């Protein structure tokens, strides 16, 4: 059962994501806030652009029951309340998404890269892929025991480890969670830096310091020679 409460403020369009991994029945309810000034609205339910009827109604709430047997029943279900103003709410029924932000995994040659995928619902199976041009190639740890390890930390958490990193490991990797109603993927970008990469800023700073010290030393030598030359010129004038 999922519910969205509408305040009745003009132009309000609320949304809620509903994760559905396996066949089930879902109740979706639009409820009007008891303090709303919107009275006796005309209520329409839609699945995409198709109008459907609600299965139950109370004074301030309207409910539909959706039977999800396959992926074709997934999608957006909306209720539109019309009165003095119009407000709406939309439920997005979808396969569970893989949690986490898509950000590069950055590590160094010889180290281990770790990628973790997590879902709200436990999938039937996990699969990891590496990108070869435009194709996705499934990773089989048993064929590359010295390179890959896949660990199922729990039913809803899966982990890929890439060992002894080299520049050849740079690229895009994917994890896929398979559910009875479909699958979800998450993208990882792996960047492998050379061991000397962290030293570059330090070397740059040292170089700047050396240049600065050398410039100061040369200036002092030049100043002393100039001062010595001026003294000798004064002595010649006196003579």
What does this structure look like?
This protein has 1 helix and 18 strands. It starts with a strand and ends with a helix. The model has no long low-confidence stretch (mean pLDDT 85). It has 2 domains: 2-94, Immunoglobulins (Immunoglobulin-like); 98-193, Immunoglobulins (Immunoglobulin-like). It is of the alpha+beta class and 239 residues long.
Topology:
Elements: E1 2-6, E2 13-19, E3 24-32, E4 42-47, E5 50-52, E6 56-57, E7 61-68, E8 75-82, E9 86-94, E10 98-99, E11 105-108, E12 113-119, E13 125-132, E14 135-138, E15 148-154, E16 157-162, E17 171-179, E18 182-193, H1 199-238
Parallel strand pairs: 1-3, 2-9, 11-18
Antiparallel strand pairs: 3-7, 4-5, 4-8, 6-7, 8-9, 10-12, 12-16, 13-14, 13-17, 15-16, 17-18
Keywords: Disulfide bond, Immunoglobulin domain, Membrane, Repeat, Transmembrane, Transmembrane helix
Protein name: EMB protein
Pfam family, one: Ig_3
Brief summary of the model shown:
Keywords: Disulfide bond, Immunoglobulin domain, Membrane, Repeat, Transmembrane, Transmembrane helix. With 239 residues, the protein is α+β, with helices and mostly antiparallel strands. 17% of the residues lie in helices and 49% in strands.
Which key phrases capture this entry?
Immunoglobulin-like, 5-stranded mixed beta sheet, 1 helix, elongated, transmembrane helix
């Amino acid at each position: 059962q999922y519910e969205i409460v509408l305040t009745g403020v003009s132009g309000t369009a609320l949304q809620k994501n509903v994760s559905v991994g396996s066949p089930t029945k879902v109740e979706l309810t639009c409820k009007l806030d008891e303090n709303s000034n919107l009275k006796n609205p005309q209520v329409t339910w839609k699945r995409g652009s198709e109008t459907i009827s609600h299965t139950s109604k109370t004074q301030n709430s309207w409910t539909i029951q959706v039977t999800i047997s396959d992926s074709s029943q997934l999608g957006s279900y909306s209720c539109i309340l019309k009165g003095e103003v119009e407000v709406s709410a939309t439920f997005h029924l979808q396969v569970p998404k893989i949690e986490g932000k898509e950000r590069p995994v950055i590590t160094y040659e010889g180290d281990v890269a770790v990628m973790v995928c997590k879902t709200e619902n436990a999938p039937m199976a996990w699969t990891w892929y590496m990108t070869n041009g435009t194709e996705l190639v499934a990773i089989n740890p048993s064929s590359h025991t010295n390179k890959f390890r896949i660990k199922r930390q729990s039913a809803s958490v899966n982990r890929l480890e890439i060992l002894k990193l080299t520049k050849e490991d740079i690229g895009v990797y994917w994890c896929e969670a398979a559910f009875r109603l479909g699958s979800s993927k998450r993208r990882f970008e792996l960047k492998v830096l050379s061991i000397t990469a962290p030293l570059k800023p330090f070397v740059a700073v040292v170089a700047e310091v050396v240049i600065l010290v050398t410039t100061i030393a040369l200036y002092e030598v030049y100043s002393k020679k100039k001062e010595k030359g001026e003294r000798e010129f004064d002595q010649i004038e006196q003579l």
